[in-house]
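Hi R.,

Here's the chain you asked about this morning:
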Amino acid sequence: MQNNTISDCSCEDSLAFELVFATDDYLTFSIKVKSGEFAGEGVFCMPIEIIESAIASLEVMYESLIGSCRMEDHDSDAYISIASGKFGHICISGQIGGSYEDQFVKFLYHTDQTELPVLIRRLKALL
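And here is the predicted structure, written out as tokens:
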């Protein structure tokens, strides 16, 4: 299994994921988030075509600094949302774990456009 960190580990805020298993049309992967003092881990299951679509959206966002991308877990209401703001500012928010579970984490942090190529590369590595 491969650990794909999206943000630098020395950062206060980070998002990382690791492939758990793949089937014909779906990928299941672990997502770990650290946002300020909060941290959480959950498992996402997503169709490969949705991951490919997210990669395409992130590539456009990186080139134009406009747009957004939302990745939703197929089995719960967990999600990751990435949106471009003014001047290359990027907002990453989401929920790890389903809201019906005993524990789940909602998070939000801001970074810049330099995180996008890393995220794109890590998502491509899962395919």
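One quick note: Residues 48-64 form the longest helix (17 residues).

Cheers,
M.
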